[in-house]
## 1
Amino acid sequence: MTEKSRYLEGVEKKDLFAHGHRACGGCGQALAARLVHDAAGENTIACVATGCLEVFSSPYPDPSWRIPFLHSLFENSAAVASGVEAAYKALGKGPVNIIAQGGDGSTADIGFQSISGMFERGHNVLYVCYDNEAYMNTGVQRSSFTPYGARTTTTPTGNRTRKKNLPMIAADHGIPYVATATVDDFRDLQQKVKKALSIEGPKYIHILAPCPLGWGHHGELTVQVCRLAKDTGLFPIFEIVDGKLTNVRKIPVKVPVEEYLKLQGRFKHLFKRGVPAKEVAEIQEIANENIERFNL
Amino acid sequence: MLKQIEGSHAVAEVVSYCRPNVISAYPITPQTHIVEELASIVGRGDLDAEFVNVESEFSAASVVLGASAAGARAYTATTSQGLMLMSEVIYCIAGMRLPIVLTCANRAISAPLSIWNDQQDSMAVRDAGWIQLHAEDNQEASDLHIQAFKIAEQTFLPTMVCMDGFILTHAFEPVDIPEQKEVDAFLPAFKPKHIVDPRWPRGIGLFADPRFYMETRYILHRALEKSQEVIKEVSADFAKVFGRESGGFIKTYKLKEADLVIVSMGSVVGTIKELIDKLEEEGKKVGLLQICSYRPFPRKEVYNALKDKTNITVLEKCISLGRGGILASDIRWSFPRAEKKERNISSFVAGLGGRNISIDDLRYMVEKVEKEPVEFGFLGLRKELIAEKDM
């Protein structure tokens, strides 16, 4: 078996989020969306927030979706999905997979309230956040998921705050399933989607989805960047099932954060003349905290 | 059946007879009694619907948007700040042609905070692409909801029933509430056109680039204009089936012989009619033109009603700050430019933030415009509270 076929073994490929969309080469979000919906299958309704995914997949008259697609605004995909679910219940239709989804801006910032409402009310909806750590669709502005030290167009000297920890906030709503994933491990991501959809109630999957344009890495390195995000401890991979942390991915060989940061233009200012700035040590500290907290 | 009932409860009962599948709302005074009553109707099993208690009006509107896109008959109610918070979704619902019905318990807008009645809230979303129907009393408010679902679902235009907050929502009046079977006979089941359903995958809410966007606005504008036919038909049908006139475009009172016409909408027309009767006893011929369908605006009907009139005064509970009367602009626009006839159209704003509009206020307005037309003025203003420099 070749490495490629091993890598793709057991991975669902149905092209429900079809090729021909207009994402950039190496787009982590496009890859994630394809994996998510191919795992969910045909009996799925995608409620998508305004953002990159919506823009590159739904220009009239050429949408890239082979499943029902519903978009209205930037900050309400969770509430719209709640409405779809309520309608299915009221009309006695279904069962159907309802996946509300959006980028980090629509999830953690402007849509935060609507997501919290969906979790708290207990709708049978999976919320997927494609986290590319800034407002990419509008040209790389800072979001509350932008990591410490990263340069965006609105944090030109580097972001001064730490990333909001939405998976833990979601779990604290008491929802039955929370998971993190990245686009370098197709099987893991798809298994989490399937598991989530097999559970009744609100679910949250947080997917790290690198953006070559905003992060300043080469498109072919998207998968590599994800691996480093995990192996440095900056993006812990875990599940929280009924409030209990489980299936934490152990890091085989821990990698210093420098290796992750150096691949990306957004951290370039931290390595002027090859010397790491003090922020690099602070970012390493964040990784170390994660390693300790999640026992990575 | 005739019932002595609070306006909000009458509306809630009638809405329940319209069998919405999904109701979503967020509490805000003076809308609360409507949704509380609906929640209790659903709670005791008299209506088989999903009642979604949300964390904001923004989500209430979004929930009914999603529900309607999934094929449900969906209803919400709000007012004032709630409608402001919804406004982004309000535009979206119209653009997506989702036939949602919303009750607006008309209330003033902050700041300063005021929970009392005026009509600034629904006016603020008048351009969103919704049909807006204004009720005069609680009988009409109830009747308009039955009509609203029918109109919305025939035209695929969302429909807002506006009723004055407190003055109607909290007033006890006798209201003839129809029976479930009568409403069922009048209002057929909702047949959605496009829904999200995996059996027929389709995209709803695609974005439109400059090659396509303008046509969607044109079509929506034309749909609103064309909805006049449906509004007319439905209100005529309603009169036939239920034996009373409710809704339609305009209503008039002692207009034919009138030397002066007062134009207004909402609950204040009751006070206006009382004044008209009094003035008649005193030998003055004053008439009323009441706007029921504010959007689409019944320009032709307004023109036909007013074409022979030279003295008109518009009274409204809202203002376009920095400009003046909003309804007054619509009325002035109703006369073709080519028409050479001289007309005096006065414009008054009154009753903002719940300020009572008394018969004496109205009498003052009539006497004032009898002397000379008033381009724009406030009625019932307490000038003693305003510093000289602010006048």
## 2
Amino acid sequence: MMEIDRELLNAGEQALLAVMILIIMFGMGASLTPRDFREALRRPKGMAIGFLSQFGLMPLIALGLAFLLRLPPPQAIALVLVGCLPGGTTSNMFAYFARGSVALSISMTAASTLLALFFVPILLNLYASGFAARIDAVMLAEGAEGFVIPHVNIIVSLLLVLVPVGAGMVLRRVSPDWAKTAEDTAAFMGIVVILFLIGSVTFRHGGLFLQTPGTVYVAALGVSLAGFFFGYGFAALWRVEPRQQRAISLETGIQNTPIAFAVILLSFEEPLRSQMLWLPILYATSVVITSSVVTLYFRRIGRIDDEIYRNSRVHNRLFGAEYRTPYPEEAVPANLERHLSKIHATVVRREGRRGL
Amino acid sequence: METLRATGSHLAEMYARAAELYGDLPAFATRQERGRWTPVGFRRLFEDGRALATVLIELGVAAREHVGLLGDNRLEWILADYGVQLCGAADVPRGCDITDAEIEYILRHAGVRVTFVEDARLARRVNALRRQLPELREIILLDAEGSAPEGVRRLGDLVARGHDLRAAGDHNVEERMESIRPDDLFTLIYTSGTTGEPKGVMLTHANMMSQLENIRMDIRCTDRILSILPVWHVFERVFEMIAVSRGCCNYYTSPRHLADDLADVEPTFMGSAPRLWENLHQRILKRVRETHPVRQALFHTAYFLAHYYKESVFFLTRRQLQLRARGILRETGATLFHALRWFFLLPWYGFFNAAVLEKLRLVVGGAFKGSVSGGGALPREVDKFFNYLGIPVFEGYGLTETSPVVAVRTPAKLVVGTVGPLIPETDVRITDPDSGAVLYPDPACPHGGRGCRGEIEVRGPQVMKGYYKNPDATAAALRDGWFRTGDLGMMTFNDCLRIVGRLKETIVLSSGENLEPGPIEARLNQSPLIEHSIVVGQDRKFPAVLIVPTAEAMASADGKLRERIGSEIRARISGAAGFKAHEVVREFRLVPGPFRVGEELTNLQKLRRHVVTDKYRDLIESVYAREARPGKEAGS
């Protein structure tokens, strides 16, 4: 097992992390409106598949990786926790640049944040109990108190995390302009704090990078990549339109790590806390890179269908909801043709709402 | 996937092919009100155009005849053009701002017998000139609204009649189309007179088809082109023809609605002029100033990062302005520096690009891929601003006489400060304006003559046939297939064309208005206080004048020389003295020394403008340093 003789983060750094959680969740709230939650109900198929991918597929991927890499139990629990998290706000930004459906991404983020209240404890109980039992056995053998997953604390921390989200939504209602700024600043602060923590941890625990088993790095990097890959495949299997496939893929792989930090800080005791924190920190760093790479890839493969979608959308906005753009056969890739009527339906529904 | 393209040996064939390929895809869209537009499909446009051509033949329009087309951007303009091309004739286009004198000169000189006019007002003006235009027989009104004046036909009626004729088995159009040769004119464009009368530029189908072939923009049937420049300029027209050939829809907008239409249409491409970018630049900066300090700070950080990041990217991808040859050592050093800078800025740029710059880019709609800017030089600062921001502005170069594109930046050669590489099949040489010697390409010179300044001469399939009924002007401009542009330029070391100035005297303001410095200078030089004067203002918002005071004026200088010259200019160059508003010079600068023969002056005491504008660059820049506030009193 990885040895951390002192606490991974000192009191000051833990406080900084807590502030970061507050800011990021506040920024996330600032990007949401009540309509985003209602909208979630309007695309049942995309939402359902996204939901299955996020809360069905992703925790299994994390569990599978933990077994495959034979991670030590604390890191395994941390990895499963990362796998069970709802989607983060950055997924919306990446979906935008990946020519994915931003609306679906936002709806999924909003809905999964609420649903996390139920699903994170249930899924952790389901998948992490085995690892917890192993820790329990070791601790009892060492003469310490036993260990069970602190479900109540976890639910309380999930609830606490929703408070700044609500506050952010209030700001959005009062001043959309400031909300926009809060959203941008929050994302930036998030990156700065994570980089600072990594720097400061490296400084204080110089050997940590070398001590950390390679499998932990593989897990941190691999969980997002596997999430993107299987999320995409799963959505493609269900034949949702390509823009939604890309959104679901990114939503599956990009998790709301601040929630993991909150859960770990508020629910777990030392030394477990320090052993668990390192993996989500590594994940939070690496996911920026992996999702950037995947986004660039999606941008390329999604060019043609996105252009067709946007063009149809403009046509429906300007020429009326009934207008169907008669693309010549040669201009539409074969795999896209069956999506054309779906694209039209999506366009009309979205644009129609705004009142053409 | 292969991009679909309609081609042919002439425009009429291309129109027919586009109708087959794209069917009911929207070809042109007309704004009815904000957010409500009506489309017309390729097939419908072609069929209406063919009907119109049928009637034009019935009205007696012969093959290769010149048909007037006086109007601004609107669907009916294109429909009229379809009609003219399909009956094997050529059009003589001009905008509604044409003066009566120009109508008379152009219609007479081109021998126009049938002309289209935009609206009832213009129809009445042309009608009033009938006595001076004995050949003019038919006036056809484009506008469907308002009442047609006596003896004026309506476009809509003609199209309806044409459909009837076609239904009755009239197939004259097919015969006409067969007889069109690539060397036939498709248009005869009269350029605003530089000296003397306007000249009719003869452009052939082959000219236009070569442009469609050689302007390699990635435009396809899912793109949208917003059209704002006057379509009777060949620059805008080439873009509309590219759109037709690729199945892309043109959306007609106007300066008044531009901001709304950019948001509604989300164009992917547009032809543009420097003025548009200057205005957008101002608008963005204004918007930033109006936001609260946190957002301002975000913007400034983002632009700062984008500036240095993109500069390094441009360097590493060989897209920086390269006016001199570089040694291997400096090259390696610079490459290393830029590679490091790129690496360190990448994550920060990545974040700010996504969070801040993307929102600014929405000012041109959310789908913009790029714009070709032409018709004047883009101010360097504005050029950098948009290209660093991530809104690609492809500056191009050309003249009406070259159909018009000679060179244009491409994504791979987006070199700020140049007009990009030459388009395929095009040759350029740089000649010494005084001796005529070829400076580039010159194998004897180091680097083949790159970096040498001189007059730009062009040879290629886009060069005009000549000036209509003006062999002298044609002979002066075209020699052995080389067209003398009258512009000064050079080839950079990464083979992009850089425009340095003009040999020809006409000054084109950034508003697009032309002014002749000659008459203004002649009038100023009559003043006892002024020895020489030279008007500047190429690509600027307003003209200014450099003054060399006379020796007497200098001698009697009592500290009030500036004031006296200022009032002298005001008195001499005024509306009352017969100058147009945009010709009225207010700003001036005094030049320290006298002009010398062999330097600023030729042996014949004529001004060598390019020398003057080069030598007094800083002085001229000082006039425009405050360009945001034009119209200030002289010398203040």
